[in-house]
Amino acid sequence: MFAPYRPTSLIATLFVLSLLPAQATNSLKVLLDTSTEMPMAELRGNRLTAGLHHDVGQALAAELGRTAQFIVLPRKRLSSALESGEADLMCHYLPDWLPGKLGWSTPFLPNAELLISDRREPRPAALTALANIPIGTVLGFAYPELDKALGRDFRREDAPSSGANLRKFAAGRVQHAVVNQLFLAYQQRQGHFKAALHPALIIRPYQAQCAVSPKGSVSLAEVNRAIAALQARDAITPLFARYR
């Protein structure tokens, strides 16, 4: 025999659901910068459709039993969005690139920062050889190793994005530029960058991390457990292999 329909019971249920915390929505809010380019991100307007931000975000969300929701914001808003809980996390970063009171995950995303030099110019033996020489950089990006090596003699030539930085280099407007290894290799393989280069000077190899919001719906411990589970299954390597 069916129980009688009670509208008041339905109203009570809806009221309880409305009081559930944000994590009950089952989404993981993943943040990225509007100027991000492939292989890190393919953006159509403010919608992320492909790239490592997409693939890593989806993998972490699945491991956490959630659905990835990508939020694309200008670089200047990234820290405040994470600190306020507008987003849960942002990956492919290092602590000295992003100010703010944030949690930082286990390092797990391999990359390297490189200095590339035009083959028609002498190859610098060390960063200190570039004192007062223009170096192609990206607006808003931090370069702590160059700051340390050159101090006031670090002459930045900022471009609005990594792609614009390479185009400036290819046009001969700078003879040296800083670029990350994944981005450079992808652009060369796609035929978008064909400049003749010296062997790159490795500024530093690194394992990038995820910045975790202190007010988000997921804790740093949960993110680290998800990363450990992905590493245990060697699930990160195939994601990078798609773009190499």
Could you please describe the fold and organization of this structure?
This protein has 244 residues and is of the alpha+beta class. 31% of the residues lie in helices and 26% in strands. Strands 5, 6, 7, 10 and 11 form a five-stranded antiparallel beta sheet that branches. The chain has a two-stranded parallel sheet with strand order 1-4. The longest helix has 13 residues, at 220-232. The radius of gyration is 22 Å and the shape is globular. 32% of the residues are buried. Residues 1-24 have low confidence and may be disordered.
Q: Give a count of the beta strands, DSSP E runs of length 2 or more.
A: 11
**H/I helix tally:** 8
Shape: globular
Q: Classify the helix fraction into a percent range.
A: 25-40%
Order of helices and strands: HEEEHEHEEEEHEHEHEHH
Structural class based on helices, strands and sheet pairing: alpha+beta
Query: How much is the average pLDDT?
Result: 90
Give the C-alpha Rg. Answer: 22 Å
How far is it from the N-terminal to the C-terminal residue, by CA?
63 Å
Assembly classification? single chain
Proportion of residues in β-strands: 25-35%
- Poorly predicted regions are 1-24
Largest sheet: 5 strands, antiparallel
